[in-house]
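Exam revision sheet. Question 4 asks you to relate a sequence to its structure. Input first:
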Amino acid sequence: MDARVTENIQQHRFELPITGQSFAVAYYTLQDGKVVLIHTEVPSEFSGQGIASRLAQGTFELLRKTGRKAVLKCPFMSHFFAKHPDYADVVDG
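Answer key, structure tokens:
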């Protein structure tokens, strides 16, 4: 899997393709011009393979590239950020 994270604006989520129809996703809402990350999902059959971490990294990189800030309400995204403080420029709250 060498896919990249993309943003699905219509469904308010960041997506990482896994296989044909399977995606890991990070859902968000917009609040005061910030991207509020609220929930991360990886299909159970792909659990434990580091896919959620790749999704988080790709999401933060995409936000950095587009100059946006994230508010972390999702426990997984908060946990990932705690281990990767180099994304402090992207996280706002």
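Marking note for examiners. The chain is about 25% helix and 35% strand.
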